[in-house]
Amino acid sequence: MTVVSSKEFATNQKKYYGLAVNENIIIKRGKNMFHLIYAPVEEYPEQPILEPDDDFYRAISAEEFRERLTVVLDKIDNSTLTH
Asked: Distance between CA atoms of 6 and 60, rounded to whole angstroms?
């Protein structure tokens, strides 16, 4: 396992990408550590584009959501005022 600073990694990215094929590379940035993982393209095929589904067609606009929310909040306000 190799631990490098973020500055060292930024300066020598090609080197560490090459090393990641055969060993664990840890990049230390402040108090955080990041693990560089080698993943061959064959293991991660391109994701298909999803077609719209029922949820998509049921979606509402932000404006419609705001209008519906206003109605609900008005009902809540009116019920608390009458009790």
From this structure: 44
User: What's the pLDDT tens digit per position in 26-80?
Assistant: 999 999 999 999 988 777 777 777 788 888 888 888 999 999 999 989 888 887 7
Q: Does domain 2-40 have CATH number 2.30.29?
A: no
Amino acid at 70: T
Distance between CA atoms of 7 and 4, rounded to whole angstroms?
A: 8
Cβ-based neighbours of 19, under 8 Å, separated by 6 or more? 2, 25
The Cα angle at residue 83 between residues 75 and 73, in degrees rounded to 5: 20
pTM of the prediction?
Answer: 0.51
